[in-house]
Amino acid sequence: MQANDPALEVVDLIVTRGSHSIGPVSFQLSVANQLALTGRNGAGKSSVLQAIAGLLPVTSGSIKIGGQSVFCGSLEREPWQRGIDWLGQERGLWPHLSIEAQCQLVARDGGKTSGQIKALAQLLDIGDRIDRLPVALSGGEAQRAELLRTVSGGGGLLLLDEPFSAQNQDGCQRIETVLDQECQAGRSILLALHQVDSERETVALEED
User: What is the predicted pLDDT for the residue at 91?
Assistant: First the structure.
């Protein structure tokens, strides 16, 4: 794939969550680029990300990842078949494993090497904490540790739901550095952000 090819294509996507319907939503994300879904709480940013990841049923529309349909009509690929790495809003670190062990586990199939994981941990200012269990981390450290685990995977598409929510200015800058580095390596990133984002292309979702 070339830099201007679509890594993700979403066309007329409609997602229903309870009594709330989101969409239709359409957008494209090019390879090695970042795109942010923005909007108020309740606008459906998280729901759209979860639908793309295969974690939430889709009512109608189509989703292509890397040019391959993952949802269209009766076709629906399982989440593990979609070539994505996911960071949700809810903290999901496994309590019984060190951060380094968690990263190595998700990196087994074409992900980061041990050296790359340690270098990213340094960038995220948790280099001296990756041998610890999640309970030993602060809220901001835990969020950066979960981002580290997410980018340690081998998927070409990163879906990140509010990755800056628990960060101070330094933490935000460190995360931005890692995301820029991942894009330079050829990965594509879709984020859900509550705040207006002037640093990257955005798609604004409006609450019904």
Answer: 75
Rounded to whole angstroms, how far apart are CA atoms 196 and 11? 23
DSSP codes, 55-121: SS---EEEEEETTEEEEETTEE--GGGS-EEEE-SS----TTS-HHHHHHHHTTTT---HHHHHHHH
| Cα-Cα end-to-end distance for the chain | 36
Q: Which structure tokens are listed for 124?
A: 């995220």
What pLDDT digit, counting tens, does each position of 166-180 carry? 999 999 999 999 999
Predicted confidence band at 197 (pLDDT cuts at 50, 70, 90)?
A: low
> How many domains are contained in the chain?
1
Residue 1 lies in a domain: no
CATH number at residue 42: 3.40.50.300
Its domain, for residue 177, covers 6-204
Provide mean pLDDT across the span 148-163.
Answer: 97
